[in-house]
Amino acid sequence: MASSSPGHIRNVEPIMLKERGSVVSVQYGRLDVIDGAFVLVDTYGVRTQIPVGGLACVMLETGTTITHEAVKLASRVGCLLMWVADGVGRVYASGAHGGARADRLLLQAKAAIDESARLQVVREMYRLRFQQEPPKNRSVQQLRGIEGSRVRRMYELLARQYRIPWNRRSYKVYDWNSADPVNRALSTATASLYGVCEAAILIAGYSPAIGYIHTGKPLSFVYDIADIFKFDTVVPAAFRTVARNSQSIERDTRIACRDLFRSEKILKRIVPVIDRVIHASGLQPPQVQPDQLTPAIPNAGKLSDGSRNN
Questions:
Q1: In b/e form, how buried is each residue of 277-302, taking b as 16+ CB within 10 angstroms?
Q2: What pLDDT, on a 0 to 100 scale, did the predictor assign at position 95?
Q3: CA distances (Å), 274 to each of 37, 174, 206, 222, in order?
Q4: Which H or E run includes 86?
Q5: Looking at residue 21, what is its pLDDT?
């Protein structure tokens, strides 16, 4: 075992999807298949059954290990496995996309390729981000330019509010320490938000790579979705951390973001937004026959009475 702490299961947020129930987070235990059931075994040998067949995602947090049989069962019933930390602020890896289906991925790709549909998605992102209608008769590139100007202004206003000297948003991946404290805090905060957004995109069954404003990167859609939320969540948290004269900028920023994600139920908020922006394209998803969906295995990891069993 990775820790002497007892195993812990936390129902992260009741994200209701059409085909699946909620997301479960596990810590400090071993996930295994015993007598056909998907279970968490803690350091004392106590087993807790997890109804994996009805879950959208199981998140493996600190101190969790998983057996080959457990991975196989989760894959067969279409439950996404995700290795995370910092309250989902970091996503290290994920298994087969549990909720992913061809109709969702094809709709996402079609909306990115069709210029008219892509523009409608970008306009919806603008609407959600700034809470106002985007200017009419503007291309994606023009909207991106307007957005950039507004974002620079928002940074300036926050810096003034928290009385922090501000030059511009700047960071160097290969020269981290050369950045000033506020830019290091902002980079740390946005990286945490990227983790949550990637988790939400995978849970919702879409691809992190197919973006609309950002394109050509493995996490293009993650950046698109994160931009909708960051000025209401992690950017102010970063400024607050710096304003407190933190002596450990990166650590304190990650903790602030983790606590924020939990108190604001951010994962639950992001998933409906993902569906909303994709469907703003106006395109219809391809029809998928019931027998093309991932089949559930009867009684796989069925939780009979919610109790902990030895």
A1: bbbbbebebeeeeeeeebeeeeebbb
A2: 77
A3: 32, 32, 9, 10
A4: none
A5: 56
Sorted by sequence, the CB contacts under 8 Å of residue 169 that are 6+ apart come out as 152, 155, 183, 186
Contacts of 193 (CB under 8 A, 6+ apart): 89, 226, 229, 230, 233, 234, 257
Query: Mean pLDDT, consecutive 10-residue segments, the chain of 310 residues?
Result: 51 47 83 92 89 85 91 87 79 68 86 96 96 93 93 96 92 78 94 91 90 95 96 96 92 92 88 94 75 43 37
Q: Give the predicted TM-score (pTM) of the model.
A: 0.79
Q: What does the block give as tokens for 305?
A: 């009475």
Would you call 164 helix, strand, or coil by DSSP? Answer: coil
**Kind of pairing between the strands at 308-309 and 47-49:** antiparallel
Neighbours of 267 (CB within 10 A): 22
Measured CA to CA in angstroms, residue 65 lies from 7, 31, 62 at distances of 11, 6, 9
Identify how many contiguous H helices and E strands the chain contains and give both numbers: 9, 10
CA–chain centroid gap for 28, Å, is 22
